[in-house]
Structures are given as C-alpha cells and as structure tokens.
C-alpha cells in the first residue's frame, strides 16, 4: 500500500479489527463453538455436513454464510463504491452494525440461530465497508491476508527488496487489534456471557456517530473556506 492513509482510517481499522475479534470469540465460545467473522472454517464444516448429510448442520452453516453475504450486500447498497472517501455513508453502516449486534444478544441468550445470523450479517457489513483504497485491500474481520502480506514483506526484506512499510504497519495494526479484541471478548464472555456483545456493539455505534460528526465538521469547514 504505497499511499498515505488518513489518520481516521488507521484508527478505524484498528478499532474495527478489535470489534471483529470480540464478536468472533463470543461466537466461538458460545453458539455451537462456531466462528462468525470469517467463512473459511464455516465452509469447511459445511462441506463435512454435506458429506454426512447432516441437514441441521447444513442449514445452520449455510445460513451463517448467507447472512454474512447479505451484510456485505447491504454495505454495497449503502456505500456504493470501493474507494475509501470521506463522504461515504460509513456512519450509517456502522450504526446498522451496532443495531444488529445489540439485536443478536437476546437471540443468542435464548439459543436461537437468528443470533448467529445477525452477528454474521453485522460482520459481513463491516468487512465489506472497509474494503479497498487505491487498489489495496483492507480487511478487518479475518487475518489470513494480513499474515500473508507480512510474510511477503519478510521475504522481500530477506532479499533486500524495497518494502511497503505503511502497508506492513497496517497489517500489524489489524492483527494486533483482532488479537486484543479476542482477549477482551473472551474475558467479557466469561463474566457476562452473550451480553459481552454489547461492548463491540457500543464501539461500532460510537464510531459511526463519531464519523458522522467528523464528516459534518469537514463539510462545514470546506464550506467556510469556499465562502
């Protein structure tokens, strides 16, 4: 990533990765020990369920995958562009994510699949929202790409090739954020159960409202300068 990202992008990426880590660990520790924020494991288990003709597992796992995709589709409808740019409706998307996570809590507590579906939809919405900037991919809900990019960077360093330092720093930030969220989410789940999801829900809601305020201030500043 050979671009200078705005400070708000770095802060948002770290916080959203932390949110994803919290949501994922709550799903893993709670509802059928199923990951929520990424679909590689879910698809693998779905393949196993199809092989075993386990209709219940098939419906659950396919439902989670489809809910994640539905969240991504909702983000596509809201943002309508793959270029990161101030003025997009990121605040609306984040507030919707917050509402989905809050709504998932009572459903999870009653053992209903709908809780996992809403949480997966929230994660799909978040992951699609934080998508691309100048051709470089930013993902906050899973880490395979981040570890891959770090590995490539190490390989380049060993060969004496130039490094995309800002890209590697962003990868490290997202990995650290996700890991921190996993630790915090596990601690919260041990004490509060599914109510732990209120924390990532509150974080996304706060970020969404904060972004709306920031955007409004930038628009007013631009209007004042042009007057």
From TrEMBL:
Organism lineage reads as: Bacteria, Pseudomonadati, Pseudomonadota, Gammaproteobacteria, Lysobacterales
- What is the protein name given in its UniProt record? DUF1275 domain-containing protein
Question: Which domain of life does this protein belong to?
Answer: Bacteria
Mention any Pfam family matching this sequence.
DUF1275
User: So where does this one cross the membrane?
Assistant: 7-31, 57-78, 90-108, 114-138, 168-190, 196-214
Q: Any idea which UniProt keywords this protein has?
A: Membrane, Transmembrane, Transmembrane helix
PROSITE patterns, from UniProt? PROKAR_LIPOPROTEIN (PS51257)
């Amino acid at each position: 990533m050979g671009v200078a990202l705005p400070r708000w992008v770095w802060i948002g990426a770290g916080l959203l990765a932390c949110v994803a880590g919290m949501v994922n660990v709550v799903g893993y520790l709670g509802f059928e020990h199923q990951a929520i924020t990424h679909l590689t494991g879910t698809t693998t288990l779905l393949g196993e369920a199809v092989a075993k003709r386990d209709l219940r597992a098939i419906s659950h796992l396919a439902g989670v995958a489809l809910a994640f995709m539905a969240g991504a589709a909702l983000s596509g409808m809201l943002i309508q562009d793959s270029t990161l740019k101030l003025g997009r409706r990121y605040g609306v998307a984040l507030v919707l994510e917050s509402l989905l996570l809050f709504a998932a809590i009572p459903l999870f507590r009653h053992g209903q699949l709908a809780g996992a579906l809403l949480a997966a939809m929230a994660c799909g919405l978040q992951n699609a929202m934080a998508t691309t900037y100048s051709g470089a991919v930013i993902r906050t809900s899973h880490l395979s790409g981040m570890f891959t990019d770090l590995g490539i960077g190490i390989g380049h360093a060993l060969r004496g090739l130039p490094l995309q330092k800002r890209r590697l720093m962003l990868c490290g930030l997202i990995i650290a954020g996700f890991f921190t969220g996993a630790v915090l989410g596990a601690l919260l789940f041990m004490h509060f159960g599914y109510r732990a999801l209120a924390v990532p829900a509150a974080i996304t809601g706060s970020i969404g409202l904060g972004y709306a305020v920031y955007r409004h201030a930038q628009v007013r500043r631009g209007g004042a300068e042009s007057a």
